[in-house]
Amino acid sequence: HVQLVESGGGLVQPGGSLRLVCVATGFTFSRYAMRWYRQAPGKERELVASISSYGGNTNYAHSVSGRFTISREDAKNTTYLQMNSLRPEDTAVYYCNAGRLWDDYWGQGTRVTVSS
Length: 116
Prior knowledge:
about 120 residues, mainly beta, seven-stranded mixed β-sheet, four-stranded antiparallel β-sheet, about 0% helix
């Protein structure tokens, strides 16, 4: 049974930090690229960050580059999104995604609200 479970969201003030965590079960985690997406109210879902299988390459949306860091710990079937210098425009539901060839798995999302 494939499952991606995100945690770590919440309310944070502008300039603050959060670390999102995604724990995967039911597939060979190390073989999958992992991605974080987000969807703000009234907007389309957008790709925030990605990390290749085995962690060799990372990519970021321009809007988060230099502030967010994606990483993975294959021994724990876990991927992380460290978010620093958060801004109100980072407010969204953040989703974890695992992809490989024709496989595409999604978590249920975790809400991040950046507000004073």
